[in-house]
């Protein structure tokens, strides 16, 4: 394993740890997160949620043990947590054993297409319900154009 590969694994582990820690820190600093405005740049600009909107709140409520609320904010929140933990364990194991275990699965174009289609389909359904539940004024209140 060369230095470039080792550095990529360390960056991957660091990124996964950071992705798990940020919602935990937000929970500690702001236990009443539910009513707060989203910090998503796309939502601030357009008033519409992006495909990742709700992911942080989903993770926060998952950490609190409220799985129903976690899934209501973003259905892939718990899956994202699982993926981050799996990435930390796998990449750490690969660094120690100097073997690669899931390279064919993780860098498979079909897996990427399936994941993209799942997220895209979920986002289209969320957008449909969002538009049905909000009028133009509600959408503008979510943006910087209010």
Query: Helices and strands, in N-to-C order?
Result: HHHHHHHH
Structural class: mainly alpha
Quote the distance from N terminus to C terminus: 53 Å
Indicate the proportion of strand residues.
under 5%
How many discrete structural domains? 1
Our Rg estimate from Cα atoms comes to: 18 Å
Q: How many strands in all? A: 0
User: Largest sheet, if any?
Assistant: none
How many DSSP H or I helices? 8
What is the 3D form? globular
Instruction: Bin the helical content.
Output: over 70%
Integer average pLDDT: 89
- Which spans of ≥5 residues are poorly predicted at pLDDT below 50? none
In short:
With 146 residues, the chain is mainly alpha-helical.
Provide structural commentary:
The structure is a single chain. With 146 residues, the protein is mostly helical. It has one domain (3-141). The chain contains 8 helices and no strands. Helix 1 runs antiparallel to helix 5 (77-97). The longest helix has 27 residues, at 3-29. The protein is globular and about 55 Å long.
Task: Give the topology, please.
Blueprint: H1 3-29, H2 41-46, H3 55-64, H4 67-73, H5 77-97, H6 103-106, H7 109-133, H8 136-141
């Amino acid at each position: 394993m060369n230095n470039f590969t080792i550095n990529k694994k360390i960056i991957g582990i660091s990124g996964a740890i950071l992705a798990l820690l940020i919602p935990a820190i937000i929970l500690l600093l702001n236990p009443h997160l539910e009513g707060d405005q989203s910090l998503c740049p796309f939502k601030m600009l357009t008033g519409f949620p992006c495909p990742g909107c709700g992911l942080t709140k989903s993770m926060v409520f998952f950490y609190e043990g409220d799985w129903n609320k976690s899934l209501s904010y973003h259905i892939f929140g718990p899956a994202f947590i699982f993926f981050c933990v799996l990435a930390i364990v796998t990449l750490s194991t690969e660094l120690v054993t100097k073997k690669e275990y899931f390279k064919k699965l993780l860098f498979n174009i079909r897996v990427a297409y399936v994941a993209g289609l799942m997220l895209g389909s979920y986002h289209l359904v969320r957008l449909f319900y969002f538009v049905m539940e909000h009028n133009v004024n509600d959408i503008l209140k979510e943006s910087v154009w209010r």
